[in-house]
Specification:
Blueprint lengths: L3 H18 L1
Length: about 20
């Protein structure tokens, strides 16, 4: 399984990306 830290970072990265797109 992926580490929680990695998942959290991924979530933040996606969040920022969506913010830029939307």
């Amino acid at each position: 399984m992926v580490n929680r830290r990695c998942l959290d970072r991924f979530k933040v990265f996606i969040s920022q990306g969506l913010s830029e797109f939307f």
